[in-house]
Specification:
Blueprint lengths: L1 H5 L15 H9 L6 H25 L2 H19 L23 H16 L12
Helix pairs in contact: 3-4, 3-5
Length: about 130
């Protein structure tokens, strides 16, 4: 959940004048993206599943670089396809796609749940890798 919520914090804008109150003034702005529940619920669910998959990858391999590379691959695919595709909001199945980035919606949440289910059914979510100890 922590991994998921951190993705919805608004990034800080460069303030013109920094004072001892600047951090307190920034706090409400950081949380403004958490207000739209139609966007937040599937996105947080999706990112929670992604965080679980990344944690599982680290647990199984004992190597943080694998999880970092996996995350980097996801972000690369998202960033590359955002500029080359267009979400048709009038399409019948458009509710399956997230509105914030064109990915983090119900369809990807279902896919992540399927991947976690397969990993659980095959017993992959159990013991950590021997190299991790």
């Amino acid at each position: 959940m922590f991994y998921a919520i951190m993705h919805y914090f608004e990034s800080a804008k460069d303030p013109e004048i920094v004072t001892w109150l600047s951090g307190l003034q920034l706090l409400p702005l950081m949380f403004q993206n958490l207000g739209d529940l139609h966007t937040i619920i599937p996105g947080v669910l999706n990112l929670t599943i992604a965080g679980m998959l990344l944690a599982w990858a680290y647990q199984k391999t004992g190597n943080l670089y694998f999880s970092i590379g996996l995350h980097m691959g996801w972000v690369t695919v998202i960033k590359a396809t955002i500029v080359t595709t267009h979400v048709n909001e009038d399409a019948a199945a458009s509710w399956l796609v997230g509105t914030t980035d064109g990915y983090t919606g119900w369809l990807v949440a279902a896919w992540g749940t399927l991947l976690l289910g397969i990993a659980w059914a095959r017993g992959w979510l159990g013991k950590p890798a021997a190299a991790a100890r």
